[in-house]
Task: inverse folding
């Protein structure tokens, strides 16, 4: 009988210890960063090209934008987690119209819902661990861009990939990372303007340097 009690005591003690060291499977935190947007305007060669032909071309760089949001993370396995996010961002891009050489400015006040998978090497409890991110996002631009030359759709879909490093700082974890967002849908809203016949696709790509913080 005593042996049975001893075995039960050790089994109970081991189960309690296992529960105490069990890792958390749910996190939530905030994210902030800066973004560089690129608005790529692809032109269609016209059948008859003259110096007066209406053409449009995107500037190489836009005005850096700001990013703020929140995220939640569920651990699916020891090394793999799923991470939905809610992001708010603001940025500007420029498009130049020829032959008048007029510069058009386009504002983007985006609300986005990314869904990412995060791979982190959790085999060792180190203060610095590398992470890899992949997934996609959908978003909506709430800024009004009225133009009689080129109109853009408000919705945007993209595929994301990123690299980061998870840093443990006492009770908090800080993860700086860089994310590349590749635009998937054509933003060109054909409204039969003078420039529409010479424009094929309009795609917006983004590079984001951001920091995630959680407990």
Result:
């Amino acid at each position: 009988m005593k042996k049975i009690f001893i075995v039960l005591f050790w089994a109970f003690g081991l189960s309690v210890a296992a529960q105490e060291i069990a890792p958390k499977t749910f996190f939530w935190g905030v994210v902030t960063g800066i973004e560089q947007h690129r608005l790529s305007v692809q032109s269609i060669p016209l059948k008859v090209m003259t110096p007066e032909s209406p053409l449009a071309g995107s500037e190489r760089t836009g005005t850096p934008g700001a990013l703020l949001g929140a995220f939640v993370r569920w651990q699916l396995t020891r090394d793999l987690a799923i991470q939905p996010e809610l992001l708010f961002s603001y940025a500007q891009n420029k498009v130049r119209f020829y032959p008048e050489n007029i510069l058009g400015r386009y504002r983007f006040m985006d609300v986005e819902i990314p869904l990412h998978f995060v791979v982190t090497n959790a085999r060792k409890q180190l203060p610095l661990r590398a992470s890899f991110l992949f997934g996609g996002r959908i978003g909506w631009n709430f800024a009004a861009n009225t133009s009689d030359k080129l109109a853009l759709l408000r919705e945007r879909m993209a595929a994301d990939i990123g690299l980061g490093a998870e840093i443990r700082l006492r009770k908090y974890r800080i993860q700086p990372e860089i994310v590349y967002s590749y635009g998937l849908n054509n933003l060109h809203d054909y409204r039969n303007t003078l420039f529409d016949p010479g424009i094929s696709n309009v795609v917006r790509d983004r590079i984001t340097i951001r920091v995630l913080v959680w407990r």
